UniProtKB/TrEMBL annotation:
UniProt keyword annotations, A-Z: DNA-binding
Ranges where the HTH merR-type domain occurs: 8-78
Name of the protein described by the UniProt record: HTH merR-type domain-containing protein
Pfam family of the protein (one): MerR_1
Entries under InterPro entries matching the protein: DNA-bd_dom_put_sf, MerR-type_HTH_dom, MerR_fam
PANTHER family the UniProt entry points to: BLL5018 PROTEIN (PTHR30204:SF15), REDOX-CYCLING DRUG-SENSING TRANSCRIPTIONAL ACTIVATOR SOXR (PTHR30204)
Coiled-coil regions listed: none
Stored SMART domains: HTH_MERR (SM00422)
Lineage, highest ranks first: Bacteria, Pseudomonadati, Bacteroidota, Cytophagia, Cytophagales
Length: 103
């Protein structure tokens, strides 16, 4: 199954794709605020590419890095904060370059 082929995946497709059990995905939704799949009209979970990437990060932290759930949650939170800071700094840099060019 190619992850780029669809906009949304149901829980069983994601579980099969990532070789993890569906109850594990539901459990992780409770433990990781970053993982928040959309729900359709029938209240079924609809995972996006972003959700799948978050699950892959969780799996990597848990399996390869040996982190606890708490440690994994903290690591993901720090990474999100770092990415936001980088975006802010890039905007400031762009503003300063434009300001310099206008002088």
């Amino acid at each position: 199954m190619e992850p780029k082929a669809k906009l949304y995946y149901d829980i069983n497709e994601v579980a099969e794709l990532l070789k993890v059990e569906a109850p594990t995905l539901r459990f992780w939704e409770k433990k990781f605020p970053q993982l928040d799949p959309k729900r359709d009209a029938r209240n079924r979970r609809r995972y996006t590419e972003r959700d799948i990437e978050i699950i892959k990060k969780i799996m990597h932290q848990r399996e390869k890095q040996g982190r606890t759930i708490k440690g994994t949650r903290e690591q993901l939170r720090r990474k999100e904060e770092s990415e936001l800071m980088i975006q802010r700094l890039m905007r400031v840099r762009k503003f300063l370059v434009e300001l310099k060019d206008n002088l």
